[in-house]
Design a protein that fits this description.
two-stranded antiparallel ribbon, elongated, 5 strands, 88 residues
Length: 88
Amino acid sequence: MPHPGYIAYMRRCPQCGSSDLYPATGAYLGALYRCKGCGYQGAFVVDSEEEMPHPQEPDNASHRMDIPLWARILALIFLVIFVWLAVK
């Protein structure tokens, strides 16, 4: 049992917030940790005494069309010309 005033810190992944980390390598320069949840590997981990909130997922509906508007219009023009030439 820890002594009074002892605060237990949890190591957490900076990408996904998981506490399921294990040391991948460690030597004189420090440890590299690997996250079993997302596969992150690095020396930077978050020491937290409380539960970390999970990062918010981006809304797929708003990010599904990352193609610029000019490229979509140009593709539509080429498609219309192609169909027009095929019908002719």
